[in-house]
């Protein structure tokens, strides 16, 4: 009976992995096929070709779009971490009236769908003179990355012992020094987790990027892929689209694999007290 349970468990794991990984495998498979054989039913490409990858960067600003995504996602992570850590420290370690209400309000902001706040955010970005600028995307992405970052870091900091703060106070450290020297090193796993999730959210965001940018030189990769066109108005270069999808997915996979231990530590931190 135990053997049957193990076999059933591993079969279920294999089925879940196959379901999750097949779309990416199909994208890689399609990106390596010649355009003439793109829609053939085959599990492996018979003729390997990098023509689709060459077509992605030829005659269009896809390389610039990748740099735009890196700049926007990187700035989103930097601002989210800077503001999130300071806000989380105040909400978790400083007692003041209305703290719970403020934390609930921060979390409630992230519950609104993007389309519900699109028009208001657009007016704000235009009033600030940031329309069709990467800075406008960075500010708009704070709407959904900052509440999550503050919430996760606040829950993490609440679990840290109060004695750490008392020892730092005895040594003459102020609030800022306590945050930098005591709490910041301890929150590294949680910061890696929230930072990576914020990076992925900013990297894959489409609606704001489509609405707040106008020219090819300011667009990020999701919008650039969506606006790829073929030889005619009604023809889509599926091979190039698949190649572009692989190009923008590989960095995310590399980041997750590089920081997987810290990600697991950050997700499980505070789950067990004692």
Average of the residue pLDDT scores = 84
State the shape.
Answer: globular
Quaternary state reads: single chain
Compute the gyration radius: what is it? 23 Å
Uncertain segments are: 270-274
* Secondary structure: helix percent: over 70%
Helix-strand string: HHHHHHHHHHHHH
Query: Counting H and I runs of at least 4 residues, what is the number of helices?
Result: 13
Question: Using DSSP, what is the number of strands?
Answer: 0
How would you characterize the largest beta sheet?
Answer: none
Distance between the first and last residues' Cα? 36 Å
CATH topology of the domain at 61-227: MetI-like fold
CATH architecture of the domain at 61-227: Orthogonal Bundle
CATH class of the domain at 61-227: Mainly Alpha
Secondary-structure content class? mainly alpha
CATH homology group of the domain at 61-227: MetI-like
Structure description:
By secondary structure, this protein is mainly alpha-helical. It has a domain at 61-227: MetI-like (MetI-like fold). It has 13 helices and no strands. It has helices spanning 2-31, 51-57, 62-93, 99-109, 118-127, 134-158, 162-170, 175-186, 188-204, 207-212, 221-226, 238-258, 260-268. Helix 3 (62-93) packs parallel to helix 6 (134-158) and helix 4 crosses helix 6. The protein is globular. The two termini are 36 Å apart. Mean pLDDT is 84; it is low at 270-274.
């Amino acid at each position: 009976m135990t053997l049957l349970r193990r076999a059933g468990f591993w079969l279920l794991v294999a089925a879940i992995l196959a379901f999750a990984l097949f779309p990416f495998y199909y994208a890689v498979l399609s990106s390596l096929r010649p355009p003439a054989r793109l829609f053939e039913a085959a599990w492996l490409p018979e003729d390997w070709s990098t023509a689709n990858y060459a077509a992605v960067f030829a005659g269009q600003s896809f390389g610039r779009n990748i740099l735009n995504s890196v700049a926007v996602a990187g700035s989103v992570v930097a601002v989210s971490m800077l503001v999130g850590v300071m806000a989380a420290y105040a909400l978790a370690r400083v007692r003041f009236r209305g703290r719970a209400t403020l934390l609930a309000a921060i979390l409630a902001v992230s519950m609104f769908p993007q389309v519900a706040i699109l028009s208001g955010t657009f007016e704000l970005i235009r009033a600030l003179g940031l329309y069709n600028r990467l800075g406008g995307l960075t500010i708009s992405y704070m709407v959904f990355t900052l509440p999550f970052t503050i919430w996760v870091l606040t829950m993490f900091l609440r679990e840290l012992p109060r004695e750490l703060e008392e020892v730092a106070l005895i040594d003459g450290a102020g609030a800022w020094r306590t945050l930098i020297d005591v709490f910041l090193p301890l929150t590294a796993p949680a910061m890696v987790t929230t930072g990576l999730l914020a990076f992925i959210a900013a990297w894959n965001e489409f609606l704001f990027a489509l609405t707040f940018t106008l020219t090819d030189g300011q667009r990020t990769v999701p919008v650039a892929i969506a606006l790829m066109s073929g030889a005619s108005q009604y023809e889509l270069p599926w091979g190039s689209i698949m190649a572009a999808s692989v190009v923008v997915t590989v960095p995310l996979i590399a980041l997750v694999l590089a920081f997987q231990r810290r990600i697991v530590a950050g997700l499980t931190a505070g789950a067990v007290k004692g």
